[in-house]
Amino acid sequence: MNNPVTERLHADELIKLALAEDITSEDVTTNAVMPEKRRGTADLICKQDGVVCGLAVFARTFALLDESTVVEPFAKDGDEVKKGQYIAKVTGDIRVILSGERTALNYLQRMSGVATATRAMVKLLEGCKTRLLDTRKTTPNMRVFEKYAVKVGGGCNHRYNLSDGILLKDNHIGAAGGVAKAIKMAREYAPFVRKIEVEVENLEMCREAVEAGADIIMLDNMSVSDMAEAVKLIAGRAVTEISGNVTAENVENIKKVGADFVSSGALTHSARVLDLSLKNLRPLD
Question: 173 by DSSP, 3-state: which?
Answer without folding.
Answer: helix
